Amino acid sequence: LVGFGTIDFNRPIADQVREIHDLGFPGIKLHPAAQKFDVLGEQAWELYREAERLGLFLTFHTGIHWHRIKDYHVIHFDEVAYHFPELRFSLEHLGGYHFYYEALAVILNNMRRRDGGRTSNVYGGLTSVFEREKQRHWYMGPERLKDAVWQLGAGQLIFGLDFPYNGIAEAKSAIEMIRGLGLSSEEEDLILAGNLERVLGIGSGR
Length: 206
What we know:
Elements: H1 13-22, E1 27-30, H2 32-35, H3 42-54, E2 57-61, H4 77-83, E3 89-92, H5 100-109, E4 111-114, E5 117-120, E6 122-125, H6 141-152, E7 157-158, H7 168-179, H8 185-200
Parallel strand pairs: 1-2, 2-3, 3-6, 6-7
Antiparallel strand pairs: 4-5
């Protein structure tokens, strides 16, 4: 398990980002709806600026979560990527059931030529998208997952962030669904481990 920091928006932002970095955490977990902050607001801008400078990875909860959508509409993350081009972050749940296409649009719109290919600093996080009834607000299903690989490439999708909110049975079922998509072994390896290792600078992706 690799820990992430988080932010108390009632305290100075940049100081907390530096503290997270100094403690050795590779990233920050953010939940705009639960934390009730505007992803395009002044405090968020301060956070992004410092995280980009320090090379921290951000992972955002996306999808419906019973707070004003204006504060965390998935399409707004295109502005984040535009103004902070070196900031790496994931859209967990791939925008959720209701904003899936917006998430694809943001990731694809920020594809740039890097390392001999086209990649984006915005990633799609595959957390809690596998259970149709239990996780219906974030459910993707096999067809949407295959379309995400088709549109974005396996190198833009990450499984393994935002845990351990699911149990062993759910994790096994999720891995089985990914392995049942008909992807190549190389694509499966990227989604299940390689991409996360690379963005966090751990394991074989170091």
